[in-house]
Amino acid sequence: MSLLKLEKIKKSFTLGPVQVHVLKGVSFEVHAGEMIAIMGTSGSGKSTLMNIIGFLDQPDSGRYLLEGKETARLSDSELSSIRNQKIGFVFQQFNLLGKLTALENVCLPLVYRGIPEKEQKPMAMEILEKVGMGDRAGHRPMELSGGQQQRVAIARALVGTPSILLADEPTGALDTRVGQEIMDLFLELNSTQKITTLIITHDPRIAAQCPGTVRMQDGYVAGTEESP
Amino acid sequence: MILKANLREASRALISSRQRSILALLGIIIGIASVIALVSIGTLVQRESMRQFMEMGTDILSVQAEQGRGGGSPKGFRLQDIVIIPESLSSIATVAPYASSYGELRKDGKRMSIPGLGVTESFFHMNRLAMAEGRFISDLDGTTAHACLSSNLAEKLKAQGIATHPGSELYYDNRKITVIGTLEPAAMGGMRPYEIQEGLLMPLPAVQRMSSQSIISTFMARLSPGFTTVQGTEEIRAHFSALPDRMEVRIMSPEEMIAHMERQFRMFTLLLGAIGSISLIVGGVGVMNVMLVSVTERKREIGIRRALGARKKDIQWQFLIESVLLSLVGGLVGSLIGVATSWGIARFSGWQFEIVHGALVLGVGVSVAIGIFFGYYPARQAAALNPIQALRTD
């Protein structure tokens, strides 16, 4: 059984008088433990696709099965709870909260899960150590480099043991060397911990390192590839 | 459990926009301060007048001679018209006439202007006074220049090193007077002439002899048991209009006195109440403004929190707690200022001061209510943000 299955997903937006069809019937599936790059130029619909996969948005039509369960017509609080439990977001701009320390940032998903404060800290600390940021737990994002911030963000995405790690241009704001370090971290997490990872990118060098690639074009999946 | 995290983050957010928060709070501070001052002063006044009437009883009338209209020289009562009242009117048990004067008290080269009061022996029981030292004026003192000191005056003199024990001698209006006693402090206001606290009491005939200006403008009358103030008032009025040179009198009963105080206080209530409620509305709008700005500034944060699994409800709570905390801080500062203000007014008016706990509860309650009321809309706005758009804002 696939972890995630999209069937003929369609999504359009109304911009003034114009109806823009962003996704025109996207189908593909992801199995547990896979690491797949979703490639496409800007305007290909990959961001909208990511929002739908991440339950930030819902499709107009088509089916989205997560762990075999239909996810249509969920209420806002059900969507929030799925985001909290099943999805780990990593953003291009890191999106850490500046007033919180690295450790507190990592605790956030646990806060919204209602986990007692005493249990949050050890869980967050453990995962920070896993991404190599254990010695920076008390620092605020301002005091960290871009690569370090992204490591904290990855820890935050992983702390709730989600089904999918969903990364949107995770190396886009980093220079090549640091970007490669982050990419290595994703690869390592995938191979050692079997963490299912979807990386949205327009960078072929990033996509080439992922075992699988889904190519988006004009609202359709133009092709899927498996790297050797 | 989210509450604790929310509280911590709310205080952080407020501290980081300190200046804006403080400005927004001015309205709430002024509003709560006026409300607290209003309520506590109201309570203090009430307790003060209650204390007074408890001490003096509510069966006392104060009778004043109407001043001659159209520039006629003020004419007071004749002593003999007053002293016959308890015998001739069945509703009145005792009377205590008094005459005010003003003079210079002198001793050892020190001078001070002091109000004086000519009284009779009955004045002591009428006002339920008590002696701290020595004895009170007796009717047997006649025109002898004996003086009884009020507690405040005795303290003032002692502070200047002037002896006040019975037998000490002072000069009042260039006449030598002998101290015969000192009064215990008495609650002020209402029926009691204020000289009881600040001045010098002497036998009525002695004061009248010292100055032709000292007229008996007022006397106090205690009702006989079983008679109402209305009966007493009517009999006194009839007594004075039956005199050969018919006199008009103005009679104050404790009921009227209380009503008078309440009228005075109502003005005060309206004024402070108006200032208070306008400031509270202005303050509330200030809080709403700060919160709306805060929501706009933190759109991205809201988006991030939503992506991490915060429900609309969680976001709404976060901002609601922040606005309640904000106005609660204003409420606490306002309460402090309000208590200080009422302390100042009580001191100035010579009332006994106490902290009115009900007022504090009210102040805190009102500020929390304002935080909820004016924070609800911004919190709703924050919760209603589309997470995707919120994430895209810079």
From TrEMBL, chain A:
One of its GO terms (molecular function) is transmembrane transporter activity. PROSITE patterns: ABC_TRANSPORTER_1, ABC_TRANSPORTER_2. Residues 4-228 form the ABC transporter domain. Keywords: ATP-binding, Nucleotide-binding, Transport. One of its GO terms (cellular component) is membrane protein complex. Belongs to the ABC transporter superfamily. Macrolide exporter (TC 3.A.1.122) family. This is Putative ABC transport system ATP-binding protein. It comes from Desulfobotulus alkaliphilus.
TrEMBL record, chain B:
GO terms for molecular function: transmembrane transporter activity. It holds the Pfam family FtsX. Residues 275-387 form the ABC3 transporter permease C-terminal domain. One of its GO terms (cellular component) is plasma membrane. It is found in: Cell membrane. It is a multi-pass membrane protein. It comes from the Bacteria. The keyword Iron does not apply. Residues 21-238 form the MacB-like periplasmic core domain. Keywords: Cell membrane, Membrane, Transmembrane, Transmembrane helix. The chain crosses the membrane at residues 21-45, 267-296, 317-343, 355-377. Belongs to the ABC-4 integral membrane protein family. PANTHER family: ABC TRANSPORTER PERMEASE YTRF (PTHR30572:SF4), MEMBRANE COMPONENT OF TRANSPORTER-RELATED (PTHR30572). This is Putative ABC transport system permease protein.
